[in-house]
Amino acid sequence: MSNYKTIDLFAGIGGIRLGFEAFGCETVFASEWDKSAQDMYEANFGHRPFGDINEIEPTNIPEHDILLAGFPCQPFSIAGKGLGFADTRGTLFFNIESILEAKRPQAFLLENVKRLTTHDSGQTFSVILEKLKNLGYTVYHSVFNSLDFGIPQKRERIYIVGFRDAIDFKFPKPSGYYKPLTDMLENDEDIPKSYFLSDSIKEKRFKNVKGNPPIPSIWHENISGNISALPYSCALRAGGSYNYLVVNGVRRLTSREMLRLQGFPDSFKINLPYSQARKVAGNSVSVPVIKAIAKEMLSAMSSKKTPSIEPKITDEIKVEFPATDSNEFMKFMNKRGYSKLSDSFWQVNT
Question: How do strand 245-247 and strand 218-221 relate by DSSP bridges?
Fold first, then answer.
């Protein structure tokens, strides 16, 4: 579909890259500081991402058409009460801001956790939008759930899309369905015993689970200790406990299953120990969501249609009253504090 060049910032294991390369985009630069994520990225894409993004000058980043980034959520320093000035220096968003300013790519896609919109009472998100718009970009944003894009994982994330030109863009429509867990899970017979829960933990799970669990299901234990058995997975988490998500109440998810729940193909190589695979999978993006957004972005960039101007809506108050030459009209006006001076003039009673 395209020969656009992209850069992959805070790249993780390359989930955003996969979504854009599906449409012919070429990755010309990648950055990721986590060593385990770098190892898996290199094994699958043939080159190792640059490390700390703070150690490269924005002007030294290769020329590119689209900036891609799944950046961490951080607060900003707000200077001056009520002045609306925010200092993004020292945050990882500042790196994105600096590269956009220095290289002026045609477009960008940023991905973050849903709570970015409410982080620091909404101040963080407001600052981000303000900074992007001040750089001259037309900005769109929306929250999507991976469940609505074919993946049996409840994972809500915000996606921010921007274009250097005033381009009309519409986010993809969710498909509204997800694949069954049977398409994601491996056979218990093929899984090492180390993945299975101890008898005591398993007994506790079955005692506390709500309702009659469907099979297959993934059991989720929340922070209060309540356990729900669902026909999909709750969001994978890099820092979740080993028993946070349990298949059918008896075993942990395998590395391959976790990557499948993020939409990675089975051809994607796993070269990390389980503890690290859990972390990088939990930090990754859901590839099908990225792919759907990439398709719409590239289509919008090709068509270059300008945004339509929405008609301004004004509030109208309509009052029905009797004909002006009737006694009813006289009563109507008198009741509201007016007195008639002549056929054309009325005064307010004081």
Answer: antiparallel
Catalytic (active site) residue 73: yes
Residue 263 lies in a domain: no
pLDDT digits (tens, 9 = 90+) for 313-335: 444 434 444 555 566 666 666 66
Sheet strands side by side (includes 218-221) = 227-230, 218-221, 245-247, 251-252
Kindly report the pTM of this predicted structure.
0.83
Domain range for 207 is 187-253
Please tell me which residue in 67, 68, 73, 229 is annotated as part of the active site.
Answer: 73
pLDDT tens-digit readout, 14-72: 999 999 999 999 999 999 999 999 999 999 999 999 988 989 999 999 999 999 999 87
> What gap in Å lies between CA 304 and CA 160, rounded to an integer?
18
310 lies in some domain:
no
C-alpha 107/C-alpha 95 separation (Å) is 16
In sequence order, the 6+-apart residues with CB closer than 8 A to the CB of 21 are 27
Write out pLDDT tens, residues 91-141. Answer: 788 899 999 999 999 999 999 999 888 888 888 899 899 999 999 999 999
Structural domain total, the chain: 3
Beta strands in the chain (DSSP E): 5-9, 26-30, 66-69, 77-79, 85-87, 107-113, 138-145, 153-154, 156-163, 218-221, 227-230, 233-234, 245-247, 251-252, 338-340, 346-348
CA nearest to 93, candidates 83, 108, 107: 108
Same domain, 171 and 241: no
Sign (positive or negative) of CA dihedral 167, 300, 178, 280: negative
Rg of the chain, C-alpha, whole Å: 28
Q: Tell whether 167 and 196 lie within a shared domain.
A: no
pLDDT of residue 240: 78
